[in-house]
Amino acid sequence: MTAQTGVSVQLGDAEATTAFGRRLAAFLRAGDLVILTGDLGAGKTTLTQGIGDGLGVRGRVASPTFIIAREHQPIGDGPGLIHVDAYRLTSIAEVDALDLDSSLEEAVTVVEWGAGLVEGLAQDRLEIDLVRPRGGRAVDANEDQPRRVELRGIGDRWAGAALHELAERA
What we know:
Layout: E1 7-11, H1 14-25, E2 33-38, H2 44-55, E3 69-72, E4 80-85, H3 92-97, E5 107-112, E6 125-131, E7 147-154, H4 156-159, H5 164-169
Parallel strand pairs: 2-5, 2-6, 4-5
Antiparallel strand pairs: 1-7, 3-4, 6-7
Helix pairs in contact: 1-2
């Protein structure tokens, strides 16, 4: 398995994060696993909303914190979106109980808080860290602040992907 060199992108605010998600969706295809990491309020759901918009899926993409996983069917011929919030999951057994691998090949699967839990679902994956400055005080999740998005493509699927193009267009 190969790992691609990471790409870092600076985004000005939540709107830029959503727009970045739309652009990222153009790189995604059915079977892709995307793992999002970042503090509370870093923009994980905002990024996923952009991905959903870019994929053209049905329904409002909202945080699935209390239901753990939401499935969004495609409006057209593209892949659907499986949006998972693994924050409340504590073990790989709980991830297995979601049966995500049964629909993995049919949709793009985005897992918030999935690091350390879902890597075993796919040999190839896109890991994305969202970082917002803290400035020595608590950050309101609704406060519009710049953030940095760091992408790492893991595996052969991402070895030839031109993720640097995302950084150039940001």
